[in-house]
Amino acid sequence: MSVPSVSETPAVAPEPPAPVGEPVSVTWHGSPWSLAGLGLLNTLLTILTLGIYSFWGRTEVRRRIWSMVRMNGEPFAYTGSGKELFLGYIIVFFMITVPTILAFAVVPYAAVYLFGPIAGPIIGIFFILAYTVFLYLLIGTAVYRAMRFRLTRTQWRGIRGAVVGSHWAYGWHYFWTLIANSFAMGWMTPWRSNLLHRQLTNDMRFGETSFKYKGKAGPLYPPFVMAWIGGLAALAIVIGGTFLITWSRIQQTIESAGSGEPPVPEPLSWTELGSIYGLYAVGGLVILLFGAYYFAKTLNFFTNFTSYGGTAGFKLNASAGSLLWLTISNLLLSIFTLGILGPVALARRMRYVVDRLEVTGGVDFPAIQQSSAAGGTRGEGLATAFDVDAFS
Amino acid sequence: MSNQTFAARWTDGKTATTHQATVTLGRAVEIHPQNLGEPVLWSLHRTMASVPLWRSSADVLMRSLDHPGQSLFVDDPNFAAALLSLAPHLGAGSKRLRDLKPGLSVTAAIAAIAGSVYALDLSPATYIAGLIPKDARVLAGQQVLQIFTQGQGYCEAPEGYAALQNLALKLQAAAGTDTEFTVSAVNWDMVNAFAVPGEQIIVTRGLIEKAQSAEEVAGVIGHEMGHGIALHPEAGLVRSIGIAAAAELVFTGSSGTIGTLGQQMLQLNYSRSAEREADDHGLRILKEAKISPVPLAEFFDRLAKEMGEPEEGSTVGEMFSTHPPSPERAATAKAAATYATEPAMSAEDWAALKAICAQQPVIEDAPPVEDLPPSDVPQPEFPESDQQPPLPPT
Questions:
Q1: Other beta carbons less than 10 A from residue A174's beta carbon
Q2: ipTM for this prediction
C-alpha cells in the first residue's frame, strides 16, 4: 500500500532570510546501537538500587545522545545531573502523587465519616472533580517546564538554551483548548497544536537570541481532513468487508426469518475468522498510515515556519512512510526488550530528526550572548508523573 | 611524563564564537587560544566531560566548574587517553561508581531498617494503628464485620445475650484497661472467634456449641480481647493497606483506588508472636477475673486432636489453620492455673448462652443481603463467590 499522493498543500516556507553570518549544518555522529550496552547496564543497576539509579542512567543516556548531535562539527552537551532528576521526582512524589492517592483513596471515606452517608459522597465527588480539573491544569505546565528544564541544560559552545515565558500561561492554554477541542469533536486539533507550538517556540531562546514561529493553522487542515477521511476509509473497509464475508449467512437469516423458523447459527469457519482479523489489520494499518501522514506534514510545517535570530530558517523533510517505520520499529524495539533498548529507540528518534533537518540562511555566532535565564529545577518530575514526556 | 599538546576549539562562555586553540596537559589543562594573549588554566580536578570517557573515546568536550560557560572541544582520538591518565575522575567507570552511590546507600539503608525491624520485632504498623482515632477504628471494624457476617444473623436470645454481656463486662473489668469491648455472637456454624478493629469481638454459634463450659468461651474471648488491646487487627489493616498502596505505586506508577478495608482484612493472619501476646493478655484477664484457664487448655487440646483426625464435615480444621492451638499453647495455659477460681457464670446462664442462637432462623432462611435495611456504613464491594466464607483471623 502506498501513501496517497495529495496535491501539495500551500505550505510554502517563508522567504529565505538574507544570508547573514556563518552557514549552519546539523549532523548525526555515531550509531544509535552503540547505546545498547548502556541500556542493559542501566536496567541491571536500576534493579540493583530499587529504581533509584534510573535517574542517573537516564541522564547518561541523554549525555550520550546529545553528544551525537553536532552543529558545525561541535557536539551539543547535556549538563543536567541525575541528582536533580531524582530530587524533582521526590518533590513531585510528595506534592502530587501522595496528595493524589489521598484525594482518591482517603477523601471519599473521610467525607462519609465527616459529613454522613448523604452529604459525604456528594462532597467527596465534588472534591474529586475539582481535584481532577486541577490535575488537568497541571499537564500543560508540566510539558512547558520539562521543555525549559531540558533547554536550560543543553549547551553548545558553552551557550545555554532557555524558555522564558510563564508555564501557567501555557498550562492554561493547554487546558482550555483541550476542553474546547473535545466539544469540537477533535476538529480544533490542528489549530490547537499550532497555537501551543507557537507559544512554546516563541518563548524559546538559544543564548539571548530567540526563535520565532510564524505558522498559521490553515494549511494544516487539508492533511487533517485527509487523515480523517483515511480513518473513515479504514472503518468502511472493516465494516464493509465483514459484511461481505458474512453475506451468505445474513441472507440465510433473512430467509429463515421469512419462513418463521428460528435461524440456526453456525460457528464462523477459520477462513472467515481469519479474513475478518485480516481486515482489522488492514484497517489499523490504513489509520496508522494516514495518522503518520498528518503527523509528518505537521512536523515539517512547524519546522519550516520556525526561524532563529531573524537570519536562520529551518527545513524538515519527514515523510509518512519513514515516520511510520520509525514509530513501529521503535515500539517493537522497546516492547520486545522490555525497555532495555529504550535508549537505542530514543537515539533513533533523535537521528531521524537530525538527518532530515536542514538549516537555511546563517547565524552570526559572535552576536549570540550567553543566556541569563535561570533554569527551572523541577519541571521534569511533573512531566514524568503525567507521562507527557516528549523526550524521556 | 612529557606534556602533550593538542589542537582544540575553545569558547569563552560569553558568546557563541569558537576560538582555535592549542591545549597542553600537565598539572592543569593549559589552553592557548589563538590571537588571544593570556593562556587559560583549568584545574584538572575541577573539569567535567560532557560524556563519560574511555581511553578510546574519539573526541572530548569538556568544561570547568571554575569557568562557567567556557567549553573545550578536542577532536583528537589520543586526547581522551592522555586526559584520563591525569584526571581519572572523568572515566566512565569512576563516574558510574559515583552515580551509583545514592542508590546503593538508600538500598543499604532500607535493607538495614528492614533487617532491624525484623530482628527487633518492631512493628511500625502497630504504632500507626495507635494513632487512628477510636471512631475511625470502629467504622473500619464495622465494614469488616459486614463482610464476615454477610448472610448470617446476630444471635440475640434475651437470656443468652444477657449472659454473654455479663461475661464480657466481667472480662473487660479484669482486663484493667479503659477499653470498652463489644462482644457479639453470630449464627455461623463454623467454630471461630475473631477480633476486628475498634475492640469488637465476634464468637460464632459453632464455637459456643463446641465449648463444654463457660470457662472455655471466656478463655477464647479473653484471647480475642488480648488481640484488641494490642491493636493487632488495626495493625494488620495498616500493614495490608500499606503493602497494597506500595505495590500499586511500584507496578502502575500511579495511584488508582485502593480496595475496600474489609477485603484487606480478609487476607489477614497474625504472626506467632502476636498470638503469643494475645495469649498472655488472655491468661492475665482470666486470672484477674478468677476464671480457671484449665478448660481453655482442654479446649485447645480437643481442637488440636480433632485437627489431627479430621472428621467428615468438621469445620475445626479450617479454624486455627494458620496458628494451630499447639500443645505448647495448651501447656502454657495449664501452667497458669495457680490461683483460686470461681465459676465464670451460673449454670442457668451457661444454659442460656448455649441457647443464644435458638431463636435465630437458620442460615438458608436469612434474608438476602439486598433486602437488609440500608446501613450507615457504605457497603463494601465484595466479589461474588460460592466458596466457603474466607477464614477470618483467629
A1: 25
A2: 0.81
